[in-house]
Specification:
106 residues; SH3 type barrels; alpha+beta
Length: 106
């Protein structure tokens, strides 16, 4: 069974329905997965050598677009290039830090 399929690039919800929206936090998959996807994928938005350096990076979706044929293309904040669904996954969101103030502080 292949690790990647062409259908993955249409989005988890179906054709023309992106998995992520602008402003969503995502994480770029690990380097090995990016390299494997680059070997498999022969069309638009193949991961470049420059993009491999960003594997594992947490970032935000800057914009979502569509390549003719329905491929969903993501542009990420502060990360170069275009990204397809198999190259990103839901990211970690910031967690609030709470602490108690000492009782003697006024």
């Amino acid at each position: 069974m292949p690790r990647f399929t062409v259908e993955e690039n249409y989005g988890a919800k179906g054709v023309w329905e992106p998995q992520f929206e602008s402003g969503d936090r995502v994480q770029i998959v690990d380097r090995q997965t990016l390299e494997e996807f680059r070997e498999f994928w022969k069309y638009v938005a193949r991961p470049t050598n420059e993009q491999l350096r960003f594997s594992g990076t947490n970032t935000t979706i800057k914009s979502v677009g569509f390549y003719h044929g329905g491929y969903i293309i993501y542009v990420l904040q502060d990360v170069p290039g275009a990204w397809l669904s198999p190259t990103i996954k839901p990211g970690q969101t910031a967690t609030a830090v709470s602490f108690e103030c000492p009782r003697d502080v006024k």
